[in-house]
């Protein structure tokens, strides 16, 4: 079916970043973050199918230079000619922030747009989220979710930095009015402006929510990003753009100084909102916030937060523990055949919570529990794999024991090795009788 | 749980404590002559509403705690007690100056032995307390440290029965129903603390999700355990139950007590805290928000109001003349007479009043036995018992006219006047009337508030007091206060500025500080460059911004008159710090940009103009700027525009340009030569 030209409601941008939190999995020798397998499926396929389900067809995948070839190859192979998704790959320099990347593809975005990170995996029903944007017409709608505590699964070797995000959401109209990170906040005192509280008399502040990196922006925000980035660094959506918009809701001085008001007015003049016209003609709609006093500045900017219900799964595979957690969850719920075409010896046990890829061979008396094994792997005799992820083409020789490990594609673990909470880089060879804990085993040639 | 205990707890007598005094002076001068809780609200003494509220809640025993005018309160309670099923006791303590004192007294007398309801004598509410009590008891069973449950009512921040000057902010945990932080909110936020809500970060450790509420009416109905009075005794400096006690308990790590809340909807709850609230609550009662506590339910023995169309309540014995107009929302007490052509709207008129012909009363509260003669106009005021307004008197808005005041014929009482007949000095027996205010035949004087000379360290913004007065107008007050910038919106703007300092200015300051340090301490160029680069990254700035600040910063140090060897000549400064400028310049665009900056800064007063050519020379000699860039700069339009000074500077470089062009053409010809070979 040929791709029909029509005016889409939303365009979507998928941010395929480097994945700093996932080192060493994302090294050149393995694969870019977007292609890391989750339940033996490349990560990016999840946001893509989410977008497909939401009815968005025009998708721009923004990839960093490194890894863009592999990603492009994958996208061509799988999505080329697929009826419902029209994917364009945009390659930007390494070290480009998410907001910078948006500024670079400014001309390609014609409508309100969705920005989603390639590491967001969610079972949120797309229209629930998008309907909030459709009905309230805010400047931005952002997804927040409460991360699953997990089951205390393996955390790998890395330690994650502990930055808590404090999110303030108006309980009456789910407006996002406060965002701050614990690392820049006063550690003794929590302080808020009184005027904020008179505008938002019921304000929930929580430190449990995480930014889902799924946003719907108005088209003009991209103009704003490019205007502001001329003045100062606007690298990241989460760190710079969203806080600026949130603050501009209350602080007129800031909004004027940063040019937010100007850009917004220009955009409004160019595309007058039909919503406003509709409201003025409506006989049932009463003007919002009639009680706000006259003369008070009413910001035209509105940020909304969509908080995912607790029973709706959301996860971000942006660090090794999170990657484990997301993978564990999707391995558990996947409805794919558990071991398609794998050769498994009779005396080998594969737990029902595990997933084995195609053409993988597993030798005698081995056991696989709570693990995901990729395709074309060769696993020897008497191998024990618990709580681990083994990617495609890996070789595990006899008597190897893995617990809480990630074995990247093409690597080889030689016989009698025992690894616990380790990450083995792509193409790495773990020598015989290695006994490691909490280590990252990587080739250092590239550094 | 042993069943025996359960039986016991249900059989316990439910006790309540009413604080009859409010410990403030907002109703003065009226409260100089009678107790606050006996003021009539829609012709019924305030405390009757509280009694009624407690009776509905199932309270069996009430302690009325009174200080000023205790004899009057006692007499009233005695009277009331006769017809009530509740046991009502009065406790008199003349020395009490605050809620804290009252609670300490209560603890000393050991009258209370179970959880009790603590209310003030001015609460008007129709809520039921059974749910709250249940919750409170369940919590106490589970956790002994939950000492108090506050009952809070949800409303919008601008709700009229939410006192403007007495707002309060609560930080709550909705899952555990715990109150985590309390802060009073003032109407005019003149100090920085007032404009911010501040709480301890520690709270987040235990309570990851909190809710900040600025929409609750706190009518100070608390379910207290017996520990509460004891805690007041322990902490002898606690005065107010909210700003001292609640705040103290919540911020104290040592006590380990918790305070909970219960949120109510769809009921009425308010407190007559001020004259402004008196006005608001009266209107709520007339409009039947407080049902069943409305005038026609006749709370007081002997009353017999009937409810008529247009929210008019009238006793049978009222005499209305044929032509008088009783508009909406009016209450008229027994035996009152209203003469021809008078117009009443939105007002309450007491018993035995005589209102003459052609009188206009709007928004006013007229108590018992008041005589208003012909042609008077009364707006938005309170007139107490036995007052007399002679013919043609006009009372402007916001007045409080106390007992027995007489206002002479044809006098106009200015807005917000407070009149009394009590002599100014307690020792004087004789009242000295002020004819300027009350007229020639009048009786009364202007009441002056006692100067707050006591040890109140915090200076109260007078406007915050004014806001609680009857008929206040926030806008008017804001206009008055324009000169001292305390108006909320203005100061709000300045607050924004404070918080987000202009990044450009901040960078200015930081760069000049860094340069100064470098010059003074004689840093090496490497260190200075490192510092400046860090600064650039920290402030998300770029090299252009840095050049704009560093070039003039370096050149400023040049003293053209200095002798060689002093370290201040053009040459020496450039030799020492020129490389620093070089660090900020990379490609050709940077070089051209650097030259513009050089040109502009030499034309401005901070740098001597004589520095320009040597500096340019230095830039060229040290390859900071290459000849292409210099030529590009010279021929660009931008360099030829600008002030006269800038143009002059450009012209001065003509010889150098000539030289450069010459050498360039030579080079070119060399190349050509080579090509031709």
From TrEMBL, chain A:
<dbReference type="InterPro" id="IPR005835">
    <property type="entry name" value="NTP_transferase_dom"/>
</dbReference>
<dbReference type="GO" id="GO:0002183">
    <property type="term" value="P:cytoplasmic translational initiation"/>
</dbReference>
<comment type="similarity">
    <text>Belongs to the eIF-2B gamma/epsilon subunits family.</text>
</comment>
<dbReference type="InterPro" id="IPR029044">
    <property type="entry name" value="Nucleotide-diphossugar_trans"/>
</dbReference>
<dbReference type="Pfam" id="PF00483">
    <property type="entry name" value="NTP_transferase"/>
</dbReference>
<dbReference type="InterPro" id="IPR056764">
    <property type="entry name" value="LbH_EIF2B3/5"/>
</dbReference>
<dbReference type="GO" id="GO:0005851">
    <property type="term" value="C:eukaryotic translation initiation factor 2B complex"/>
</dbReference>
<protein>
    <recommendedName>
        <fullName>Translation initiation factor eIF2B subunit gamma</fullName>
    </recommendedName>
</protein>
<dbReference type="Pfam" id="PF25084">
    <property type="entry name" value="LbH_EIF2B"/>
</dbReference>
<dbReference type="GO" id="GO:0003743">
    <property type="term" value="F:translation initiation factor activity"/>
</dbReference>
<keyword id="KW-0396">Initiation factor</keyword>
<feature type="domain" description="EIF2B subunit epsilon/gamma LbH">
    <location>
        <begin position="342"/>
        <end position="432"/>
    </location>
</feature>
<keyword id="KW-0963">Cytoplasm</keyword>
<keyword id="KW-0648">Protein biosynthesis</keyword>
<comment type="function">
    <text>Acts as a component of the translation initiation factor 2B (eIF2B) complex, which catalyzes the exchange of GDP for GTP on the eukaryotic initiation factor 2 (eIF2) complex gamma subunit. Its guanine nucleotide exchange factor activity is repressed when bound to eIF2 complex phosphorylated on the alpha subunit, thereby limiting the amount of methionyl-initiator methionine tRNA available to the ribosome and consequently global translation is repressed.</text>
</comment>
<feature type="domain" description="Nucleotidyl transferase">
    <location>
        <begin position="12"/>
        <end position="146"/>
    </location>
</feature>
<comment type="subunit">
    <text>Component of the translation initiation factor 2B (eIF2B) complex which is a heterodecamer of two sets of five different subunits: alpha, beta, gamma, delta and epsilon. Subunits alpha, beta and delta comprise a regulatory subcomplex and subunits epsilon and gamma comprise a catalytic subcomplex. Within the complex, the hexameric regulatory complex resides at the center, with the two heterodimeric catalytic subcomplexes bound on opposite sides.</text>
</comment>
<dbReference type="GO" id="GO:0005829">
    <property type="term" value="C:cytosol"/>
</dbReference>
<dbReference type="GO" id="GO:0005085">
    <property type="term" value="F:guanyl-nucleotide exchange factor activity"/>
</dbReference>
<dbReference type="InterPro" id="IPR051960">
    <property type="entry name" value="eIF2B_gamma"/>
</dbReference>
UniProtKB/TrEMBL annotation, chain B:
<feature type="compositionally biased region" description="Acidic residues">
    <location>
        <begin position="451"/>
        <end position="461"/>
    </location>
</feature>
<dbReference type="InterPro" id="IPR051956">
    <property type="entry name" value="eIF2B_epsilon"/>
</dbReference>
<dbReference type="InterPro" id="IPR011004">
    <property type="entry name" value="Trimer_LpxA-like_sf"/>
</dbReference>
<feature type="compositionally biased region" description="Basic and acidic residues">
    <location>
        <begin position="644"/>
        <end position="653"/>
    </location>
</feature>
<dbReference type="GO" id="GO:0031369">
    <property type="term" value="F:translation initiation factor binding"/>
</dbReference>
<keyword id="KW-0648">Protein biosynthesis</keyword>
<dbReference type="InterPro" id="IPR016024">
    <property type="entry name" value="ARM-type_fold"/>
</dbReference>
<dbReference type="Pfam" id="PF00483">
    <property type="entry name" value="NTP_transferase"/>
</dbReference>
<feature type="compositionally biased region" description="Acidic residues">
    <location>
        <begin position="661"/>
        <end position="677"/>
    </location>
</feature>
<feature type="region of interest" description="Disordered">
    <location>
        <begin position="443"/>
        <end position="467"/>
    </location>
</feature>
<feature type="region of interest" description="Disordered">
    <location>
        <begin position="481"/>
        <end position="507"/>
    </location>
</feature>
<dbReference type="InterPro" id="IPR005835">
    <property type="entry name" value="NTP_transferase_dom"/>
</dbReference>
<comment type="similarity">
    <text>Belongs to the eIF-2B gamma/epsilon subunits family.</text>
</comment>
<dbReference type="GO" id="GO:0005829">
    <property type="term" value="C:cytosol"/>
</dbReference>
<dbReference type="InterPro" id="IPR035543">
    <property type="entry name" value="eIF-2B_epsilon_N"/>
</dbReference>
<dbReference type="InterPro" id="IPR056764">
    <property type="entry name" value="LbH_EIF2B3/5"/>
</dbReference>
<protein>
    <recommendedName>
        <fullName>Translation initiation factor eIF2B subunit epsilon</fullName>
    </recommendedName>
</protein>
<dbReference type="InterPro" id="IPR003307">
    <property type="entry name" value="W2_domain"/>
</dbReference>
<keyword id="KW-0963">Cytoplasm</keyword>
<dbReference type="GO" id="GO:0003743">
    <property type="term" value="F:translation initiation factor activity"/>
</dbReference>
<dbReference type="GO" id="GO:0005085">
    <property type="term" value="F:guanyl-nucleotide exchange factor activity"/>
</dbReference>
<keyword id="KW-0396">Initiation factor</keyword>
């Amino acid at each position: 079916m040929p791709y029909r030209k029509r005016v889409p409601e939303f365009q979507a941008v998928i941010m395929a970043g480097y994945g700093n939190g996932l080192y060493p999995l994302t090294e050149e020798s393995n694969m870019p973050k977007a292609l890391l397998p989750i339940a033996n499926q490349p990560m990016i396929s999840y946001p893509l199918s989410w977008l497909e389900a939401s009815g968005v067809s025009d998708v721009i995948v923004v990839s960093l230079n490194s890894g863009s070839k592999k990603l492009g190859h994958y996208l061509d192979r799988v999505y080329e000619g697929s009826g419902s998704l029209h994917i364009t790959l945009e390659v930007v320099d390494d070290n480009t922030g998410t907001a910078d990347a948006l500024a670079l593809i400014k001309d390609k975005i014609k409508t309100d747009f969705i920005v989603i990170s390639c590491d967001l995996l969610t079972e949120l029903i797309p229209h629930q989220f998008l309907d909030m944007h459709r009905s309230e017409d805010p400047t931005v709608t952002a997804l927040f979710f409460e991360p699953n505590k997990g089951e205390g699964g393996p955390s790998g070797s890395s330690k994650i930095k502990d930055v808590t995000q404090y999110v303030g959401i108006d309980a009456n109209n789910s407006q996002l009015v406060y965002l701050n990170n614990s690392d820049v906040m006063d550690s003794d005192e929590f302080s808020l402006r009184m005027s904020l509280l008179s505008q938002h008399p019921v304000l929930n502040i929580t430190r449990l929510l995480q930014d889902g990196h799924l946003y719907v922006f108005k088209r003009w925000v991209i103009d704003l990003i490019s205007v502001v980035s001329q003045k100062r660094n606007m690298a990241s959506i989460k760190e710079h753009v969203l806080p600026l918009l949130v603050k501009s809701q209350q602080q007129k001085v800031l909004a004027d100084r940063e040019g937010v008001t100007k850009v917004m007015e220009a955009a409004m003049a160019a595309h007058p909102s039909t919503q406003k016209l509709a409201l003025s003609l409506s006989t049932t709609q009463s003007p919002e916030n009639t009680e706000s006093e006259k003369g008070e500045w009413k910001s035209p900017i509105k940020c909304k937060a969509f908080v995912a219900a607790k029973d709706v799964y959301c996860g971000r595979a942006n660090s090794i523990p999170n990657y484990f957690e997301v993978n564990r969850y999707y391995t558990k719920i996947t409805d794919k055949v558990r071991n398609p075409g794998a050769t498994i010896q009779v005396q080998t046990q594969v737990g029902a919570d595990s997933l084995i890829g195609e053409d993988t061979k597993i030798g005698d008396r081995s056991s696989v529990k709570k693990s995901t094994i990729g395709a074309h792997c060769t696993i020897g005799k008497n191998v024990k794999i618990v709580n681990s992820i083994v990617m495609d083409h890996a070789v595990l020789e006899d008597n190897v024991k893995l617990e809480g490990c990630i074995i990247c594609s093409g690597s080889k673990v030689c016989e009698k090795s025992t690894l616990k909470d380790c990450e083995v880089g792509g193409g790495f060879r773990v020598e015989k009788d290695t006994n490691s804990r909490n280590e990252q085993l990587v080739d250092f040639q590239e550094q | 749980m042993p069943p025996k205990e359960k039986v016991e707890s249900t059989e316990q007598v439910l006790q309540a404590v009413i604080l009859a005094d409010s410990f403030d002076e907002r109703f003065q001068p009226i409260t100089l002559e009678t107790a606050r809780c006996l003021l009539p609200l829609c012709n019924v003494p305030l405390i009757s509403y509280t009694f009624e509220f407690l009776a509905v809640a199932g309270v069996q025993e009430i302690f009325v705690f009174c200080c000023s005018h205790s004899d009057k309160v006692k007499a009233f309670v005695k009277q009331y007690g006769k017809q009530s099923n509740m046991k009502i006791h009065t406790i008199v303590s003349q020395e009490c100056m605050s809620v804290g004192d009252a609670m300490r007294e209560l603890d000393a007398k050991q009258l209370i032995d179970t959880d009790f309801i603590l209310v003030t004598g001015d609460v008007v509410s129709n809520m039921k307390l059974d749910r709250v009590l249940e919750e409170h008891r369940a919590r106490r069973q589970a956790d002994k440290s939950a000492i108090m449950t506050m009952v809070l009512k949800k409303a919008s921040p601008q709700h009229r029965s939410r006192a403007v000057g007495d707002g309060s902010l609560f930080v709550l945990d909705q899952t555990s129903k715990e109150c985590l932080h309390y802060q009073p909110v003032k109407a005019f936020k003149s100090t920085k603390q007032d404009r911010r809500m501040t709480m301890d970060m520690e709270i987040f450790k235990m309570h990851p999700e909190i809710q900040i509420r600025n929409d609750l009416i706190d009518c100070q109905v608390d379910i207290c355990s017996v520990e509460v009075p004891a805690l007041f005794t322990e902490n002898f400096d606690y005065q107010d139950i909210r700003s001292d006690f609640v705040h103290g308990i919540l911020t104290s790590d040592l006590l380990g007590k918790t305070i909970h809340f219960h949120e109510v909807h769809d009921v009425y709850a308010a407190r007559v805290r001020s004259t402004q609230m008196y006005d608001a609550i009266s209107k709520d009662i007339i409009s039947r928000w407080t049902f069943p506590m409305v005038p026609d339910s006749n709370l007081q023995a002997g009353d017999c109001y009937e409810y008529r169309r247009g929210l008019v309540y009238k006793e049978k014995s009222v005499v209305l003349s044929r032509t008088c107009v009783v508009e909406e929302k009016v209450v008229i007490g027994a035996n009152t007479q209203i003469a021809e052509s008078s117009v009443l709207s939105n007002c309450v008129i007491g018993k035995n009043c005589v209102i003459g012909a052609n009188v206009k009363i709007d928004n006013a509260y007229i108590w018992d036995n008041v005589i208003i003669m012909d042609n008077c106009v009364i707006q938005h005021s309170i007139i107490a018992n036995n007052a007399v307004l002679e013919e043609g008197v006009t009372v402007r808005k916001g007045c409080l006219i106390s007992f027995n005041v007489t206002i002479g014929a044809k006098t106009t009482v200015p807005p917000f006047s407070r009149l009394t007949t009590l002599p100014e000095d307690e020792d004087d027996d004789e009242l000295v009337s002020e004819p300027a205010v009350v007229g020639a035949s009048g009786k009364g004087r202007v009441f002056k508030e006692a100067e707050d000379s006591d040890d109140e360290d915090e200076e109260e913004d007078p406007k915050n007091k004014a806001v609680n007065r009857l008929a206040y107008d926030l806008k008017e007050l804001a206009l008055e206060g324009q000169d001292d910038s305390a108006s909320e919106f203005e100061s709000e703007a300045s607050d924004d500025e404070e918080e987000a300092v202009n990044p450009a200015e901040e960078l200015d300051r930081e760069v000049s500080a860094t340069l100064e340090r470098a010059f003074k301490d004689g840093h090496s160029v490497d260190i200075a460059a490192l510092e400046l680069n860090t600064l650039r990254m920290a402030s998300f700035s770029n090299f252009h911004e840095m050049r704009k600040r560093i070039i003039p910063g370096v050149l400023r140090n040049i003293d053209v008159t200095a002798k060689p060897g002093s370290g201040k000549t053009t040459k020496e400064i450039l030799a020492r710090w020129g490389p620093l400028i070089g660090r900020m310049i990379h490609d050709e665009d940077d070089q051209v940009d650097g030259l513009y900056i050089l040109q502009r800064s030499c034309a401005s007063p901070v740098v001597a103009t004589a520095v320009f050519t040597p500096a340019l020379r230095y830039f060229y000699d040290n390859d900071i700027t290459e000849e292409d860039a210099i030529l590009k700069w010279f021929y660009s339009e931008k360099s030829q525009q600008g002030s006269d000074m800038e143009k002059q500077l450009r012209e001065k470089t003509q010889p150098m340009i000539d030289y450069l062009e010459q050498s360039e053409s030579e080079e070119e010809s060399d190349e050509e030569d080579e090509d031709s070979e």
